[in-house]
């Protein structure tokens, strides 16, 4: 969920109904304390195929999370991403507010946005432009407060302001799954008899019992003798 303009976000509750997700968002205005509620019904559609192996996460500094949730806004962002990625099979994997990633709440000034992390996936490799922007040389320039390396035209401008120093490129490969156990039919083969496990012969518990019982008694007797000697034989005049 994302914040409502002029208010603070809150979640009243959610529940799953098959492939539908019901989400109730509560928000209040900080100045007038007016409270509003809105219920959203989200259709959950499984992603086609497996997770894309190439994923890039962009930080959009001039947008709030609710501005990139509509499908039209995401389509415009994908068109801008295709200009620097040079791929046409891009799709949005996740949209996260920068506040959920440790970002600060923006000042109440006109034009200040909270920032949005948008993760985009593709089955094609990263373009040289993205690779250079996330290279160690670019990271070093960012640590010095300089602009990172960019070998292509920024197709995000002027609609989206990308923080290129926060660009993250990931390669996700499917992990091999271990073969599961081979289940049989559950029917005993013909001619085979069930052989129960043999009984374990009873062990001799007497030595352990004597050690457990006699050792504490011997220690208690020694303590009693020592205490009696101190109290009876060490008195004044004796």
Automatic annotation (TrEMBL):
- Sarcoglycan alpha/epsilon second domain boundaries: 53-169
Origin: domain of life:
Eukaryota
Per UniProt, which keywords does this protein have? Membrane, Transmembrane, Transmembrane helix
* Transmembrane feature ranges: 206-228
Q: Which GO terms describe its cellular component?
A: sarcoglycan complex
A Pfam family for this UniProt protein? Sarcoglycan_2_C
What protein does this entry describe? Alpha-sarcoglycan
């Amino acid at each position: 969920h994302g914040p409502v303009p002029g208010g603070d976000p809150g979640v009243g509750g959610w529940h799953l109904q098959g492939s539908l997700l019901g989400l109730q968002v509560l928000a209040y205005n900080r100045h007038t304390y007016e409270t509003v509620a809105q219920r959203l019904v989200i259709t959950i559609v499984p992603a086609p195929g497996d997770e894309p192996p190439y994923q890039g996460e962009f930080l959009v500094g001039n947008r709030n999370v609710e501005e990139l949730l509509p499908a039209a806004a995401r389509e415009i962002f994908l068109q801008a991403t295709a200009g620097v990625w040079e791929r046409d099979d891009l799709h949005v994997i996740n949209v996260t507010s920068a506040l959920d990633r440790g970002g600060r709440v923006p000042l109440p000034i006109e034009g200040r946005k909270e920032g949005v992390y948008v993760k985009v996936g593709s089955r094609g490799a990263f373009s040289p432009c993205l690779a250079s922007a996330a290279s160690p040389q670019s990271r070093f320039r960012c640590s010095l407060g300089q602009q990172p390396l960019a070998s292509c035209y920024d197709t995000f401008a002027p609609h989206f302001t990308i923080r290129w120093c926060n660009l993250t490129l990931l390669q996700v490969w499917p992990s091999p799954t271990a073969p599961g156990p081979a289940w049989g039919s559950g029917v005993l083969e013909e001619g085979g008899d069930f052989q129960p496990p043999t009984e374990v012969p009873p062990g001799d518990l007497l030595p352990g019992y004597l050690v457990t019982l006699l050792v504490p008694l011997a220690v208690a007797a020694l303590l009693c003798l020592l205490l009696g000697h101190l109290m009876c034989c060490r008195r004044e005049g004796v």
